Structures are given as C-alpha cells and as structure tokens.
C-alpha cells in the first residue's frame, strides 16, 4: 500500500531564523567567551584547584575521599585533551564536587548559549549550570535521574543576563549519590553570544569578478551587476583546456564544516549551447588540462530559481536570459556528482577555481552555504542566514506507481529528474548520459560518471535498465565525422565493446534510435549536421537498411545473449505510412533474430493523433510477436486540466494495449525538455495528472499477451484483483519464486478476517484464485498475501 510522509520542500514567505548548536558550527567563526574549554592549554596529568587555565576545581566539606581530577588524552570528544573526574564519595550537596568555568565576560541583557559534552563509564547524574558570582543562576540542567551515558552527549543551555553583571561562571556539579564510583569525562565547553551564530549561518559570497582571472575572461556590466563571461568557446569535453580559461579565488570561511556550492548565473540566448562550465573538484590549485581536477556542470538552460522565496535546493527549471541561482552540490545538472566541500580545522582559507566550457554563460556570484541548512534566493542575494527547516509538503515514498502491475512505468535518470525517483518509477533510462557524444566527447577520453550513476541506481533498486543509445545521428562525438569509414567502424566497435564491458547487466539495449529517413539517421544531413558514419555501417545496401542490420549484428555478437535488443523511433504510431516503413525494418531484423523489442517514443507531438489510429498501428506492430515499449512518453501541460485530460485519453490506450510491456516517461520534474510536461511543480507538489496516474495504476488490470514468460517468477508479487469493483466473483493473482506456504486472507475495514481465500503449500509460479463474496456485505475490503517472509496487502471493492 502507498503511504505519505511529510518532507521538507518549501519555505513560506518570511525568513525564519533557527539557532542550532553543535561542535561543527561553533568554532573559529564564533567568539568563544570561556577559556580553555577543551583543556588543550593544560598538560595531561593530575590537577586540582586552579591548575587548569580558565577553570576552578572545588571539593567541599563532607566528601570523605577526594575525587580524582586528571587531564587525559585517551578519551576525548574534541581536540586531544579532556577532563576526567573519578568520584569516590559525595558530600551533602551537589556542588560539594564541582568544576567551574571561570571569569566569563558577559553583557547585561544579552543572550548566550552554553554548550558542553560529557560521558561516563556507565550512567551518571550531573548538573550543568551557569550564573553570577552571587550564586544567582541564569540557566541550569538538573536531571531527576541519570543523564550522562557511556556515549558522548552534548548539553546546551540558552541563557540571558537578567541583571547588571558583566562576569559569569559555569559550575558543573558531581556530588550526587548516584555518581559514587563513577568515572565522568567533560570536554569542549563553549559559551558564546547567540548573535554570533548568525555569522556561520550566512552563505559565503564570492563575487565572480573578484578572482584571479585568465585573459579569456571579461568582466562586464548589466546595470548594477558585475559579472564574468568567457570570450572563447568549447575546447575540451572534460577540462577547460587552458589556464586562460580559469578563474582562481581565495575563499575565507567563518567556520569548519561541510558546505554546498551555489552559483548565480545567466544562460544566453543559445540555451543548451551556452549552458555549461567547470568548477574545481574540491579545493586547491587545479591543472587546466586534467579531467580529474574538474567537475562538469551542464544543462543549466533548464535549471535554477529566481523568485525571492524559492528554496535553492533541488534542480529548478528556469530557462534562458534570466539571472538565477543553482545549487551545484545537490544537483549534477547532466554532469558529474559534486564533491563534498569540507572545511577542517587546519585552515579556514581555501583556494577554489572555476573554468570555462561553453561561451554564452554569464556568472555573477558563487556562494558556499552550510550543507545542513536551506537557503532561499533572498538569503543568497542578501547574504542572510539559512534555515534548518522549510515548510512541508506531502510526498510519496513508494512503492513505485506500477509496482503492483505486470508492466513497468519508468522514467529518465538525470540530475534534474532523480529526486525521489524510486518512490514513483520502476525502470531507469539515462536521459543524455548514455549518448555517445556525452561519454566520449573527446576521443578515447571516456566520461562514464553520469551513466554509472544511472546504471547503479537501477541495479541498486532492482529496476530494469534501458541503455539509451548506441547508434544515433544526433548528440554523437564531433570528432567521428573527420575519420575515414574504416576508422569510424573501428571506433563504433570500440564503443560497443566498452559499453558491454562496463555494463554487463543491461536489460534493454537501444541499438539504433530514429533510423527513418528525415528523422535522425547518422547520414551527415540536417542543420546542425548529424554524425556521418552511416556508410561505415554499410549504408543502405541491398535491403535499404543494411546499416541498421549491421549495427544489430554487432550488438548481438558483442553483448550478452540475455540482453534484449531494441529499435526506437518517434512518430510511428500516428502514421500508417511510418508504421509500414518501421515494420519493414523490423521484419528484416527478425529474419536473423536480431531484435527483441519494438519501441515507439510516444512524445507529445506524436500523441495528438486519434486514439483509434494509434491503437490500430500498435496492433500492426504487435503482429510481429515482439513486445512493444513506449520509451519517451510525455504530455504537455500548459494548464493542469489540459495535461490531465490528455493523460486520461492517451496513457490507458498505451498501457492497456496487450502488446505493450511498459512505458517510460521522458521526465517528470521541472527542467525536462518539454517545458510544460512536468508532473510536479518546483515546490514538489504533484500536478493533477500525476495524482490521477497514481490512482489509475493502483486499480487498473492489464495483461501482456504478446510474450509467454517461461520459468518461475523472479520475485514474490501480489497483483490487483480483476474485475474491481466486482459482483460477486473476482480473480486474485500472485507470483512465487519458490515453493511457499501461502495464506491469502480477506479483511474488513476494522481489520477483522472475514474470509480465508486460499491456504496451503504452492509450487513456484504464478497462481490465480477466485474470490466469491456473495455472502458478504457491499463495501471496501483488503486482501493480504503471506508467503514465507513476504507480506503484501491490496484493496478491493464489492458492489452488489
């Protein structure tokens, strides 16, 4: 069953300051008022009285055996020293044994935060206090039982100076009966003005023009905005290519910790031809021609945020010619996974670099913000503190929408689309990461990062992986066109072999994409020109499609036998003429058993056709006996209602066709290539079409009739009953990968068992049982399958 959880996803109108504490955020960036809080200024050994700088150790009357105070180095929370207290006996009052942080400067009316860490050899009871020298307390922690355990814990007290005192003290009390015989450790006390916390909650802003820039950069002006722009275009795929195309900065951080990288930028009019750059793979000096020194950021033409209340966290989806903020650490943006920017205690000053890739990209600012905080556009624009929380919106956590169906519903994997992917979709296709031009933009320099991420995401979640794409006329490496046909064929073979070796468990292999004339064959035509290696693969030849046949022959030889080979194209099923041409290629491939799957992309410009026409052409494709996949499905949504109506018209026509084994959406979050086809908004809220799709997939009953699956299922599964609603008989199906003891029970809304539907030991396989509900009242019921450790529950509706 589906469940909903509350997830952080948006900020409301005004900025909310959340004060946070912890050793990672209160260090060099804050003025610590107490002295020697981590005992680093005192040598290890026994101590007493005022031996510890900044502290007073006191033992009062009534303590029969004095405690042992010692600076130790073997048990510490921070740095290299801590204070150990061994309590042998106690006095009449808790303060008869105490250690006091002494002489703390304060100001009347100011608010401060007290923080200290403690642990015990077992469990102990310790009072933490702060007050003035007249023994009036400003704040305290006085537990009724043990509060210090065998693990380091932090204890914090916010307090305000309510009198006119300018000096305070912070006693810690140990003279409590429960502590007799205990060993207690204290470390890392820090007392500071809470206003100082705001310093480290603010982003570190770096003006783009403030660095040491190579001569290929210009500093330009847009009204009040000074920005940098590269004057030379693309040199290398994986690095800037020249020191003239690098800007280096010296960045001063207020504190240790982990930071996210942001950028404020603008993509010029050429959009996706102007929207990439590099930044340094971590801090330090970078070599302009070493790929490993640089992180690629691409696809910024459909990314980012500009509204002041927008949280700069996810990918965003703004277009060209607008200044916008992007979060580079949280989103790969068709590039590589971002490094973690960690500031240690060695130095708060770091060297950072950016590098040019494409011209037409303007950069105004960079910013480093704490990774544990959220920043709005307003926060970044005005150098304001971030927040630990943002307003919540409901978001589905899974299982995927089609998990109860025999057909998958998948989606593309990219930096813009991956957020919460596994909660909705159960098949993975890399959007651009598997295109030859993305992997080998520079000859023999393979960039596998994005493709690895997509493949691993599929395998880690048990989803089928669709490799897109081996042969295509578009988005191919530019250098291929300059080679002879013999060299081109060698490179194509190397490309196939490299993919097969790196990804041995591809489920669906898209061998050729868009082969039809006038689409995107690699014939050198088009503007801009397509790849020109069609002749290297055999050209038209005697069949008219020899180049396609040869590509599939190579794939069948190089890839594992269990890899299913696919042919893909667009605007097939809306045209009987295109369907006939497509069928000609398919039947040529079938003669040599070279094809396993037929694919129609299913883009919005195709599905404007009448449903009857598309069904008729799907029938023609299914007549081959091969399964069909819809591989790049999207529905434009200029309004919510338009998108919903078209989903309701088109999606069932495809999904319920018995020849279709699954549908892959070509994106669902803002930033996909069809600008209005997103199914969620920038704030993560579902649009009505997605809400409908979830409900539809939870109740529809579909079959795949083209292919008979032999052998036993791979997984346990309980399917939706059919029909539903029903009167009085319905069929329930379930799959077992191994022989199992099965209990299939029917429950009413109160959770009471009203019927045993099936019970016994069942063979591995897919089974169907009939439920006759004639003796029951109309209403909603739940049926639950228990098979070994597998449990699954679904809903049915009985209507007399």
Notable characteristics:
800 residues; alpha+beta; Jelly Rolls; TIM Barrel; 4 domains; eight-stranded parallel beta sheet; seven-stranded antiparallel beta sheet; 40 strands; 15% helix; disordered N terminus
Architecture overview:
The protein is of the alpha+beta class and 800 residues long. It folds into four domains: 45-199, Jelly Rolls (Sandwich); 202-392, Jelly Rolls, CATH 2.60.120.260; 407-699, Glycosidases (TIM Barrel), CATH 3.20.20; 717-798, Macroglobulin (MG2) domain (Immunoglobulin-like, Sandwich). It is 15% helix and 31% strand. It contains eleven helices and 40 strands. The protein has an eight-stranded parallel beta sheet with strand order 27-26-33-32-31-30-29-28. Helix 10 (640-655) links the parallel strand 32 (628-633) and strand 33. Helix 9 packs parallel to helix 10 (640-655). It is globular and about 105 Å long. Residues 1-28 and 705-710 have low confidence and may be disordered.
Taking all Cα atoms into account, the compactness measure Rg is 33 Å
Shape call? globular
- The termini sit apart by 25 Å
**Total strands:** 40
- Mean pLDDT over the full residue set: 89
Strand order of the largest sheet: 27-26-33-32-31-30-29-28
Q: What is the number of helical segments per DSSP (H or I, 4+ residues)?
A: 11
Give the biggest beta sheet: 8 strands, parallel
The CATH class of the largest domain turns out to be Alpha Beta
Main structural class? alpha+beta
CATH superfamily membership of the largest domain, which one?
Answer: Glycosidases
How many independent structural domains?
Answer: 4
